[in-house]
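Incident log, structure service

09:12 report received: a user says their structure output differs between two submissions of the same chain.
09:20 pulled the input from the user's history:
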Amino acid sequence: MSDAIRFEDQVVIVTGAGGGLGRAHALLFARHGARVVVNDLGGSTHGEGANASAADKVVEEIRAFGGTAVANHDSVTDGDKIVQTALDHFGRIDVLVNNAGILRDKSFHKMEDADWDLVYKVHVEGAYKTTHAAWSHLREQNFGRVIFTSSTSGIYGNFGQSNYGMAKLGLYGLTRTLAIEGRKNNILVNAIAPTGATRMTEGLIPPQVFEQLKPELVSPLVVYLGSAACQDTGGLFEVGGGWVGKVRWERSLGAGFDPKAGFSPDDVAAQWQRICDFEGAAHPADNVEALKEMMANLQKYAL
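09:34 re-ran on a clean worker, output below:
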């Protein structure tokens, strides 16, 4: 193992770290010298119940190889308590990995409010609460790394996961904005869309593939994104099975109409092929770049 990336004297919080991806992240951070807060409520993949043993076992694993870790058993919706655990035991926080999540899969016409609300509460509100509690501390020390866990179900959609897809893509919207707000204080914020063999994906992935998608094949990216070596921010990375790729938005150059004269639905229909043509597509990095084609069209008809 390379020792170039190290976390001595740094404190890392990993939520949902009692098993699966979170456990793998916590173990690898600890092996690289971090002091780790292992958070896990210990509930089911559907968000029911609680069991302190999940987080405790991971702490025992870390301590067994000489690492430093403490357990936290709070729900991510009480994110301030998780951050306080880091402060009480270690006096600081440097890296936050928002990993905790649940599934309540149902086709949309069968979706109940409880299924929608609980997935939102754990994924979105939980990540918000924990990150918001940590944010002022990261600003004060002028350093921080935050990693959100998105999903290909949010990027591309997936049958039966309207609630989960909504939450996971919402976390990328949060990633983009916090990346902008955090940069001046050296707080870099990125998101991953992982594929790993965990309790949440068991039965959803063919067994022969499932066995090869070890959670440990996701964690090296997370540890890199949490390090001072990483200078990227606002990124979204798909990762799994030993492969990592970066995702970016793409938009066609579109078609322009005279804003003074106006245009009709028939005009849109006539230009539909051009509107949907991705040849020479743009890849806006921010809101300013996103407005480029629209502003060019306004200028074209300015006179």
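09:41 both user submissions now match this output. Likely a transient worker issue. Closing.
09:42 reviewer note: Residues 217 and 242 are 5 Å apart (CA to CA). The first strand starts at residue 11 and ends at 14.
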